[in-house]
UniProtKB/TrEMBL annotation:
<feature type="domain" description="EAL">
    <location>
        <begin position="1"/>
        <end position="269"/>
    </location>
</feature>
<protein>
    <submittedName>
        <fullName>EAL domain-containing protein</fullName>
    </submittedName>
</protein>
Amino acid sequence: LKLEADLRRAIERGEFRVHYQPKLALDGFERRPEAEPPLLPPRIVGMEALVRWEHPEDGLIPPARFVPLAEETGLIVPMGRWVLEEACRRAVEWQALRPSEPPLTMSVNLSARQFEDPGLVEDVARILRETGLDPRHLTVEITESVSMKDARSAVGTLRELKSLGVCLAIDDFGTGYSSLAYLHRFPADFLKIDRSFVGGLGEGPEEKGLVPGVVGLAHTLGMKAIAEGVETAEQLARLREMGCDLAQGFYFSRPLPGEAIPALLSEYA
Ligand code: G
Ligand code: G
Ligand code: NA
Ligand code: MN
């Protein structure tokens, strides 16, 4: 109960922080079928915004410990607006650091309550306008379970978001119960392979077969595949072999405070 009261005050007091984890393009992204190209080093092409709460007494609290409560109380909606605004502002700032590179993209997570909020599309449009971020450089991530909870109405909301020009990602794919009938109607751009599958790469034959299967499914549906939770060079090598487009994980970088990102960008330039 104290946590709930604290959470209510956290927005007014500005206690939320956003950390950012880079998304890297693997070589498969630009592979030409005729040539056997040398492997280019992975390049940072985007960031995922991940919220934290800097509690005055308890220190930095991870989202697993307060997002469910924020969701229950509805506080996730104003909190999410703040995260989105902060992330879009940062994206514009960091794009300016690399004027000759393709513009860095920003990904933001939306929970069920946010996704169902009738003001969502208007909020996203307003924040894009106010921050000046090109809609094409924003990706909204919703989990497979949120997208399938009421798949018919989800398709409608996804289409509205899409009509703003933003990109869409289906997060934690493989952990929910997807209907392939709906999945192929989702106007999504990215399919994020849950890290529990990526962690199994290099183990038994079943685990080995699953990830290329999902990469193939993404491509069949006209989406790019993103592997989450890449922790080892071996996992990265497997993912490149199977043509996975993008990767995220501790192997490249943990989520970092915004202040640390300019240095990270020059390290991977
Ligand atoms: O940051 P961490 O690696 O602990 O993320 C854990 C979970 O919290 C992830 O499932 C992620 O989707 C969720 N999460 C992180 N940031 C946000 C956010 O800004 N909004 C919402 N709705 N969920 C988030
Ligand atoms: O939205 P999502 O639930 O996918 O959020 C990503 C979560 O995964 C965050 O909690 C982030 O800190 C965590 N994460 C990111 N990279 C790795 C990784 O390589 N290994 C593990 N175990 N967790 C990771
Ligand atoms: Na996510
Ligand atoms: Mn995920």
